Automatic annotation (TrEMBL):
Species of the source: Paenibacillus residui
Membrane topology field: Multi-pass membrane protein
Phylogenetic classification of the source organism: Bacteria, Bacillati, Bacillota, Bacilli, Bacillales
Protein's UniProt name: MBOAT family O-acyltransferase
Keyword Cell membrane: yes
Intracellular or extracellular location(s): Cell membrane
Alphabetical keyword list: Acyltransferase, Cell membrane, Membrane, Transferase, Transmembrane, Transmembrane helix
Record InterPro entries: Ac/AlaTfrase_AlgI/DltB, AlgI, MB_O-acyltransferase, MBOAT_fam
Family membership noted in the UniProt record: Belongs to the membrane-bound acyltransferase family.
Domain of life (superkingdom): Bacteria
Membrane-spanning segments: 7-23, 35-58, 70-90, 110-132, 144-164, 188-207, 228-255, 360-379, 410-428, 448-464
Length: 474
C-alpha cells in the first residue's frame, strides 16, 4: 500500500479519526492499522514479520543476567538470517556459481520463487538496534508486546524508514494515551505530507521517465549522455526517497509522534563526511553506532580507523542490495570518507585549512563532490559491474563534457532541479520565520483558500497512475 494512493489515505484518515476519538484504544488501533497496511503486501510475509517480532520481543525480556550475551546472539542471528534468507540467498548462490563455474540454480528452483518482503531491511536494522541497546542498558524493554509491535511496525516508517531507535520512539509509544489533538501538529504534518507528495508525484516520477529512457540503452550511451542520465537519476532517487521520509514524518505528526527527518539537502555537501550527515541520516548513524564503533572506530590508530570506515560502508552497500554493484557503491563511499580524512589532514599540514572559510572554495568543493556522488550512483543504477565500468569509462573521456545541443534541455532540467534543492535548503533553514510571517500577514480566510487549493491539487495528483518508491526494493 503506497502512501500516495487513495487506499492509504482512507486507512490513515479512519485510523486518525478513531485514534483521537478513543484515546484508551490507541495501541490496539495502531496495531490493527499496521497489520492491514503490511498485510496488503502479502499475508505470508506478514506472518513472518509478526513471528520475528514476537521472537525478538521475548528475547529482549531476557537480556539481563547470566545468559544475556547468548540471548543477544540468538536474537541477532535470527534477525540477520531472516534478512539473508529473503534478500541474499539467490545472490550468494549465483556468486558461488560464478566462482565454481557450476550450475546450481535451475529455472524451476525453489530459491527463485522467493519474494523479498517490503521493508525487511529497515525493520531488521530497527530490531537489531533495539536488542543491542537493551543489552547495553541504554533502554528498557518494551512494557507489552503490543507496544513493541507499534514501535517496530508503525506504518508511517515501516517500509523505508526512518530507522527509529528505542530511545527515540518507544517513550512516545508508551505515552501515547496522553497525546492530545494539536492543530500545530496537523499543520506541520500536512506541510511534510504535501512536500513529500510534491517530490514524489511531481518531481521524482516525472524525472524517472527521462532517466529510465537513458538507462534502457546503457550500452549505447555516449559519455555526455551518461552524465545527463546519472544527473537525472541522482535527483530522481533523492526526491523519491526524501518524499517517502517526509511523508512518514508528516503522518507521524498527525498522530502526535515525532519521527526523524532523514534528509537535509545532501547535494549541497562539500565532502563525504558531510554527505552522510545529510543523506539517509538514520542509516548512517546506525552504521556508525552498530557497525563502525563495534569494529573499533577510531580507537586503534588511523590505519585501523580507515579499515573500519571502509568495512562499515561496504556493509552499507551490501544492505542496499544483493548485487556486486551495491558492494562497489559502498566501497566507493568508504574510499571517499577515507580520502576526505586524508585530504583534510594534508590541508592542515600544508597550512591550507583556511580554505574552508572561502565561499569560492566551498562552492567548488560542492560541485566536485556532487560529481563524485554521481559517479557512485552509476554502480547503484546500472545493472552489472561490467556495464557500469564501461559507462564510467566513456563518461571520463574529455569529449564526454562536450554536450551536444540535443542534451541542453536535459541540462537545463538538471539546473532547475539543483535550484529547487537550494530553495529547499533555505525553506528549512527559515521555516519558523516564514511560518510566522505567513500567519501574521495573511488572515485566516486567505490561508483557508490556499490550503483548500493545495488539497484539491494533491487530490487530483493522487488520481494519476502511481509509481512505487525506489527504496521499497531494499
Amino acid at each position: 500500500m503506497l502512501f500516495h494512493t487513495p487506499e492509504f489515505m482512507v486507512l490513515m484518515i479512519i485510523t486518525m479519526f478513531l485514534y483521537y476519538l478513543l484515546p484508551n484504544r490507541r495501541i490496539f488501533l495502531l496495531s490493527v492499522a499496521n497489520v492491514i497496511f503490511y498485510g496488503v503486501a502479502g499475508i505470508g510475509h506478514l506472518f513472518v514479520f509478526i513471528a520475528v517480532s514476537i521472537f525478538t520481543y521475548y528475547c529482549s525480556k531476557m537480556l539481563r543476567g547470566k545468559y544475556a550475551k547468548l540471548i543477544l546472539a540468538i536474537a541477532l542471528v535470527v534477525n540477520i538470517l531472516n534478512l539473508v534468507f529473503f534478500k541474499y540467498t539467490v545472490f550468494l548462490i549465483r556468486s558461488m556459481e560464478q566462482f565454481l563455474s557450476v550450475k546450481l540454480l535451475t529455472e524451476d528452483s525453489f530459491w527463485l520463487t522467493i519474494v523479498l518482503p517490503i521493508g525487511i531491511s529497515f525493520y531488521t536494522f530497527q530490531m537489531i538496534a533495539y536488542v543491542v541497546d537493551i543489552y547495553k542498558g541504554k533502554i528498557k524493554p518494551s512494557r507489552t508486546l503490543l507496544d513493541f509491535w507499534v514501535f517496530i511496525a508503525f506504518f508511517a516508517n515501516l517500509i523505508a524508514g526512518p530507522i527509529m531507535r528505542g530511545q527515540e520512539l518507544l517513550p512516545q509509544i508508551e505515552g501515547i494515551r496522553s497525546i492530545r489533538f494539536d492543530r500545530r501538529n496537523m499543520r506541520i504534518g500536512a506541510a511534510f505530507l504535501g512536500l513529500g507528495l510534491f517530490k514524489k508525484i511531481v518531481l521524482a516520477d516525472y524525472i524517472s521517465g527521462y532517466a529510465d529512457s537513458f538507462f534502457a540503452r546503457t550500452a549505447e550511451l555516449t559519455g555526455a549522455e551518461g552524465w545527463v542520465a546519472i544527473y537525472l537519476f541522482a535527483f530522481q532517487i533523492f526526491f523519491d526517497f526524501a518524499a517517502y521520509s517526509e511523508m512518514a514524518v508528516g503522518i507521524g505528526y498527525f498522530f502526535g509522534i515525532k519521527l526523524i527527518n532523514n534528509f537535509q539537502t545532501p547535494y549541497l555537501s562539500s565532502n563525504a563526511t558531510e554527505f552522510w550527515r545529510r543523506w539517509h541520516i538514520t542509516l548512517s548513524t546506525f552504521i556508525r553506532d552498530y557497525i563502525y564503533i563495534p569494529l573499533g572506530g577510531s580507537r586503534n590508530g588511523k590505519v585501523r580507523q580507515y579499515i573500519n570506515l571502509f568495512l562499515a560502508m561496504t556493509i552499507s552497500g551490501i544492505w542496499h542490495g544483493a548485487a556486486w554493484t551495491f558492494v562497489i557503491w559502498g566501497m566507493f563511499h568508504g574510499a571517499l570518507l577515507i580520502g576526505h580524512k586524508l585530504y583534510s589532514k594534508g590541508k592542515e599540514r600544508l597550512g591550507l585549512a583556511k580554505l574552508d572559510s572561502s565561499k569560492i572554495y566551498h562552492v567548488f568543493a560542492v560541485i566536485v563532490f556532487f560529481h563524485l556522488t554521481c559517479i557512485g550512483w552509476i554502480f547503484f543504477r546500472v545493472d552489472g559491474f561490467q556495464n557500469a565500468i564501461s559507462l564510467l569509462s566513456r563518461m571520463l573521456t574529455p569529449e564526454a563534457f562536450l554536450f551536444p545541443k540535443e542534451l541542453h534541455k536535459y541540462l537545463l532540467l538538471v539546473a532547475v532541479l539543483y535550484l529547487l534543492h537550494i530553495v529547499e535548503y533555505y525553506l528549512f533553514a527559515n521555516a519558523a520565520k516564514w511560518s510566522k510571517a505567513w500567519h501574521n500577514r495573511f488572515p485566516a480566510p486567505v490561508r483557508a483558500v490556499v490550503y483548500t487549493l493545495v488539497i484539491a491539487v494533491l487530490a487530483l495528483l493522487l488520481r494519476t497512475e502511481q509509481n512505487t518508491f525506489i527504496y521499497f526494493q531494499f
